[in-house]
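During the reporting period the student researcher (J.K.) took over the structure-prediction task from the postdoctoral fellow and processed the backlog of single-chain submissions. One of the processed entries is reproduced below for the supervisory committee.
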Amino acid sequence: MKNKIALITGITGQDGSILAKFLLKKNYIVHGIKRRSSSFNTQRIDEIYKDVHDKKAKLFLHYGDLTDFPSIINLIKKVNPDEIYNLAAQSHVQVSFETPEYTANADAIGTLRILEAIRICKMEKKTRFYQASTSEMFGTSPPPQNENTPLHPASPYGVAKLYAHWITINYREARNIFASTGILFNHEGPSRGETFVSRKITMGIANIMMNKSKCLFLGNLDAYRDWGDARDYVEAMWKILQYKKPDDFVIATNKSFSVRQFVEIAFSFLKIEIVWKGKGLKEIGYNKKTKKILIKIDKRYFRPLEVDHLRGEYTKAKKLLKWEPKIKFKAMVKDMLKNDLKILGSNLAETIK
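J.K. obtained the following structure tokens:
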């Protein structure tokens, strides 16, 4: 049986690297697009990468960028993929307020470029396309959110992803491309980037425990998010493209926790109880036992327009894809904290059960 060929944009990111490992286990030949950088940025996939001269190599990397249309067309022609997973994006919400034009170019028009490349290369009948949509498209719409919830994004990132989401649906309907979307709610793990609040918390705690910093600075503690594990969500991506017809699916856990609860749970694994005092920008969190201040608020980490509560309802994915999350929130937080303690060389990682 011939190996399926997959092309992953954003392969060096959290989702792309986990997806690459997942597909290799299913005997795919995997091609990944990565941006040119003056430093190595392939740490997440180093363990699965083999030299191209190795006859057993099934993972191949290519330079490219979603803002460069010719490179996208040429690569899709060269790879001739059965499946394309578009995971590349400027994916940081706060950064999108500072770089709105780049975010729109990469996230919105970048998706259009891939869809146009599929059309231009006349690969509509061969190639299945997955677009990584996001819960940030719901923005200020109240929870729970599902496939029928009105979309009201509250950031340039959310708006750019909304365009990408709808242009994918448009090419599905107008161009007859097998183009599906996964509306993924927050999904985390040990390989999450350190600028995202989940990893910022676990790495921040690890730094405090190793006396590398005194406290952790955060923004809105009362933002609620539906946090799942990236390993579960990558499987959902694959299932979406294996389904008999293209469609749109919310991928979530239908449970939400606040940033404040995330902090409390993470510290609890180290037998530290956090007590809160004060309000607004003057609020602090301190160790109940030692009275040491461990959490402070920094107004720079507040968004210009806040999204208060995201919680996804994944009934459709459960019914049609037979998918549901397996890894619980607390188990995910524990994995992240243990990993960050190990990175810093702390023996505390072994005490967390």
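The committee noted the following: The longest helix spans residues 100-120.
J.K. will present the remaining backlog at the next meeting.
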